[in-house]
Amino acid sequence: MSLFRKTTKLSSKKQKSQQNENQNQPESVLLSGRLQDDFQQIKQLFEAAGDFVYREIEITPKYPAVILYLNGIINVERMELHVIQPLLKHEAGLLPPYPTIDHFKALLSAARVTLGETFQEAIDHILSGSTVLLINGFQKAIFISEQAWEQRSIEEPASEATVLGPREGFTENVTTNISMIRRRLKTSKLKFEMMKVGKLSNTGVVITYLEGIAEPSILEEVRSRIERIEIDAIEDSGYILEFIEDQPFSVFPQILQTERPDRVVGNLLEGRIAIIVDNSPFALIVPVTFFQMMNSPEDYFGRFIMTTFIRFIRYLFLIVALLFPSIYIAVTTFHHELLPTNLIFSVAASREKVPFPAVIEALLMEITFEALREAGLRLPRPIGSTVSIVGALVVGQAAVEAGIVSAPLVIVVATTGIASFMFPSYPLTGAIRLLRFFMIFLAATLGFYGIFLGVFFILVHLVQLRSFGVPYLAPLAPFHFNNVKDLLIRVPWWMMNERPQETGKTNLKRLRYRRRKY
Amino acid sequence: MNKEKIGGLQLFYLMAGYVLGTAIILGLGLDSKQDAWIFITIGMLSSLILMAVYTQLASYYPGDSLVQMLPKIIGKYLSYPVIVLYILHFTYSAARAGRELGDLIVTTILSETPIIVVIGSFMLLIIYCLRGGVETLGRMAEIIFPVYIFSLILIWVLLFSVDQFDIKNLTPILGRGVKPLLKQTFPVAVNFPFGETIVIMMLFPFLKKQQYARRIGMSILLVGGILLTINSIMMISVLGPEIYSHDIFTLLSATQMVSVADFLERFDALVILMMVAGVFFKVGAFLFGAAVGISQLFKLKQTRSVLLGLGSIVPPLSLITASSYVEHLEFGFKVYVPYVHTLLQIIMPILFLGIAFIRKKMGHI
Questions:
Q1: In angstroms, how far is CA A441 from the centroid of its own chain?
Q2: How far apart are CA A29 and CA B323, in angstroms?
Q3: What are the pLDDT digits (tens) for A84-94?
Q4: CA distances (Å), A113 to each of A80, A101, A131, in order?
Q5: B280 vs A456: CB contact, 8 Å cut-off?
């Protein structure tokens, strides 16, 4: 009984809050039907907006009308052709003496025509690139959606280039992006839930998932986290990412950012959820695991034997990228005996002229390398390559000859640099780059023991991380044998008969395994 | 309260690593010389009985840790000193394991580093891990244990290449008769490291599938014991019984003898890694047991603040209890393991089981 009372109380509270909201929003007022009043009210809102265009026309002498739109985000030619012309030049018999709004709607030859009755709707439509038609005497407005704005054409994704597989990447236009996903999944189970985020920007955010495959609880979590965002404007999906991340203070990315529609589709099929944000070419994918960040979309297009080999190399160089400089420091400062005698002699000989301890030397080089990398990104493209040549070859060579750094260290730093370019996920690269300095510090103070401690620290952190409730090191810890098929080894497609345990629980079976007989 | 859970396999990894932990580096049954492996085997087999006692107690009071079941067995007031005794035991054992790690690191690879830095930084790691609760500990075990076993087996394989490797070092088997061996075996071999698994009674309430508790407990001892036995056979074969009985870090000494084709040599780093990993399990489980014990004793809602306190006690504790490593070992093998371990790990649990059994018969549970 008491429980019942509680729920009724709750619901009455909800109703009250809803009422309050309605009162607070003057725009949800209905259109009056008096053309001049409605028109003036909207015009007032857009008073100093230079791109606001209105045009008064007369459909028949009895029915004056106003067309309102924002210049630059609608297709003016199509609007002329499909809205203004049919209205002005309609044949006399088409309109009955006392036409309803639907009769006017029927006159228009545009493809997407809808009706609405509040100011809020009218304003939203104007802002999002529709043309609003107000006709005297009707409490409803007609919205004609003929959006068109300048946009980038579909290009090859710059941050995730592959040799095999599709070459198209997302653009800044959410409609184009959605169409790219839809083309790959021609099923009604593919859902796009639209939301608006940002009080001023009103940016469209689309939650994409496959019904019946995506975990409903995770989906609900995604929805509620996005709903809770309160910000004035969203400029890129990166904003959303920081708002909905599980642990914002971790260096590791817990959400996958991708420019590739094929990668999004692959993840949707594994029960994950994609978030597409208008004006951003990067879709967000949740929940993700560490190992997923280490997989390139190309892994799934090539032959599995080669892919498995490449993955081994990738994980090996993950260790190199993280630990190589610190191992070098540990060996040269603490554990000379770990190297074969000849090698340690040649390393010691090359370090003879160097005035700094190995740590300072390594930090110097690493920071220079990071600077070169950043400079290469910022400079205009033709100069960028020059800088890297000057930086890498000339400065590096000169530094070694001048005895500021030793030659083995240059090899170490260069290898590490190359290794850090190997990871398919750019944010993960950042995490590794940062942690490398942490490891250098530990190696310089505690040698190999420090390195082990550091690795343990990182592991403890990784083990605690979660991405939307899914453990970050998922198929490994907690261990799931079936998912290890797509971890270090990628089994051929005909053997990947199950979706990942963490995200695809609702619909585990992916394909029927059969032994191939041909 | 026990929202977090640990999987059966995770618990197995954790506790198997815990059994191997310091024991594999230190070498067991040093006084028994070439019969050390028999010493370990007997210790393992007899500790199975102990594990039966522990798991039987756990099954009498399902969902209760040792600290929670004690008041129900021996009454509220009598139980407090006993619980405090156990908490002190866990804390001190964690400190001992920390000291062993610290001394290994300082004597082998970081000769100029103060030992407190080594132990202190390690304790930071443990606190950071235990903050995440038993779940984190279990997952860490899941990641580390396979690497640990891989390193161990790699070292064994490499040991075959050592010139001095001679299986005949194991002879004469039982050269001095059974009696002196048995005298040495009880109670030391049972207590360390197998009896130390009493800490598993603090972990049972967190186990996902309680019905497998006994199976997991037994397999921990069996796997840990068999690995330790093989290890001691390898060590004795390589080092010979004399060196084996006098060496402080037998595994390290043996590994340092490896040299394949003048290139694959100096696998010290691997031993250090194993030591760090093993002590990680050991100190992690002990400190977790102590922290959970304290928070259950005082009915605290969380263990984090307790962990912080314990973590700051352990490093100094590990150092002040012995002025040198030899003294530390001496105290451990001559006093702590034979007497304190026997009391807390053998006599008291059996006593508790007896009382619990009678209570059960009388229908007081």
A1: 33
A2: 84
A3: 888 888 777 77
A4: 15, 12, 10
A5: yes
* Chain A interface, best mutation among B10, B100, B109, by max A CB count within 10 A: B109
User: What is the strand order of the sheet A113-116 is part of?
Assistant: A52-60, A63-70, A130-135, A141-145, A113-116
List residues of chain B with CB under 8 Å from any CB of chain A: 7, 9-10, 105, 109-110, 113, 117-118, 121-122, 125, 128-129, 132, 136, 139-140, 142-144, 262-263, 265-266, 268-269, 272-273, 276, 280
Domain residue spans in chain B? 8-351
C-alpha to C-alpha distance for A262 and A302, rounded to whole angstroms? 14
CB B147 within 8 A of CB B298: no
pLDDT in tens, A408-454: 898 999 899 889 888 888 889 999 999 999 999 999 999 999 999 99
Task: List, in sequence order, the alpha helices (H) in B213-303.
Answer: 213-246, 250-256, 268-297
Q: CA distances (Å), A238 to each of A203, A286, A288, B123, in order?
A: 13, 13, 16, 37
To the nearest whole Å, the CA of B317 is away from the closest chain A CA by 21
Q: Measure CA of the first residue to CA of the last residue in chain A; give whole Å.
A: 67
Stretch (H or E) spanning A509: none
Distance from CA of B116 to the nearest CA of A (A): 12
- All residues of chain B having their beta carbon less than 8 Å from the beta carbon of residue A335 are 109, 268-269
Nearest to A329 by CA among A405, A247, A419: A405
pTM: predicted TM-score of the whole model, two decimal places: 0.88
A463 → closest Cβ in B125, B140, B276: B140
Q: Which numeric CATH code is attached to B8-351?
A: 1.10.4160.10
**DSSP H/E element including B168:** none
